[in-house]
Structure formats: C-alpha cells, structure tokens
C-alpha cells in the first residue's frame, strides 16, 4: 500500500466506508471553519464584538488545522485494513 494513493479507497468495502466517513468529517470541518471565519469577519465591523470575532478566527484556524489530521487518520486507517508488509513495497 502506498500512502495517499488515490486508488486506496476502492480496495474493499471497508476502504470505501472509511473514505466516506473521512470525507464527511473533512467537509463538516471545512464548512464549519468557513462559517466561523465569515461570522468573525462580520463581527469585526463593530468594536464591541471584536473580542468574540477574534475567538471565532482562532476556532476557525484550529478547524483548518484538523483538516490534514483527518487525511492522516484515513491513511492510517487504510494501513490498518491492509497487510502491514505492503507498506515496505513500492
């Protein structure tokens, strides 16, 4: 198995299920981060809400940091579904 191979998600039904779950999580995180940034941007128009806007930006940034973690989790999941000896093969 090669890491980040686009064909990995088609190897079995378990691979397909893992791919679908991770894509759903990735999309939810992506949309949530975007919503936090948009709301935070709007809140920056008023000095009374700047503190809250800053926190929304921090939360959005953390969510954007979670995105690659989901992909890494998916690849490790693929590895768990496969034979570990395949990792050393090219």
From TrEMBL:
Is the keyword Membrane assigned to this protein? yes
Q: Which UniProt keywords apply?
A: Membrane, Transmembrane, Transmembrane helix
Can you give the residue ranges of the YrhK domain?
23-76
Which InterPro entries has this protein been placed in?
YrhK_domain (IPR025424)
**Source organism's superkingdom?**
Bacteria
For this protein, the parts annotated as crossing the membrane are 24-45, 51-70
For this entry, the protein name equals YrhK domain-containing protein
């Amino acid at each position: 198995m090669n890491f980040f191979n686009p064909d990995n998600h088609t190897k079995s039904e378990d691979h397909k299920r893992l791919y679908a779950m991770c894509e759903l999580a990735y999309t939810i995180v992506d949309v949530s981060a975007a919503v936090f940034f948009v709301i935070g941007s709007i809140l920056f128009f008023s000095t009374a809400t700047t503190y809250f806007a800053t926190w929304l930006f921090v939360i959005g940034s953390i969510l954007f940091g979670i995105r690659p973690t989901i992909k890494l989790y998916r690849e490790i999941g693929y590895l768990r579904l496969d034979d570990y000896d395949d990792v050393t093969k090219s």
